[in-house]
Amino acid sequence: MTYSPNCSSSGRATHKAGTTFGYAGQIEREVYEPSSDSTTVETDFTGWQGASEIRTESGELVDTLAFEWVDASTGLARIFSQDTSDWRQICANKAR
Q1: Closest by Cα among 23, 20, 18 to 67
Q2: What is the DSSP string of 46-58?
Q3: What DSSP string describes 22-37?
Q4: 3-class SS at 14?
Q5: What's the confidence (pLDDT) of residue 29?
Q6: Which of 9, 22, 52, 67 is the most exposed place for a label (fewest CB within 10 A)?
Q7: What does the alpha-carbon distance between residue 96 and residue 81 come to, in Å, rounded to a whole number?
Q8: Cβ–Cβ contacts within 10 Å for residue 28, how many?
Q9: Is 44 helix (H, G, I), strand (E, B) or coil?
């Protein structure tokens, strides 16, 4: 999953820093089968572990989010952070 804050010309993200952040969605992966030259989409992540981070556009780590499977068999996952006060730097460079 990729979360890209919508930065305005003032450099502010639409997510208010300091509040709780949560996002849930389905993860899919494409699997290419060379013998049949076909691609299938899989959503079963049973037995997999997940992780999520928030980074600036330049790659600087802002926060490591909590990750949990809502239903790994269907690829439904949730990421969240209870405190996003350090997220102010996400769009800092856009204000310049």
Answers
A1: 23
A2: TT----EEEE-TT
A3: EEEEE--EEEEETTTT
A4: coil
A5: 93
A6: 9
A7: 27
A8: 10
A9: coil
| DSSP 8-state assignment for residue 17 | T
Residue with tokens 């204000």: 95
First-to-final CA distance of the chain:
28
Distance CA 52, CA 63 (A): 9
Tokens of 48: 């997999």
CA atoms of 67 and 79, how far apart (whole Å): 5
How far is residue 44 from each of residues 34, 40, 52, 90, 94, measured CA to CA in Å?
21, 12, 18, 32, 38
Q: What pTM does this model have?
A: 0.65
* Residues 76, 74: Cα–Cα separation, whole Å: 6
Instruction: Show the tokens assigned to 65.
Output: 């989010």
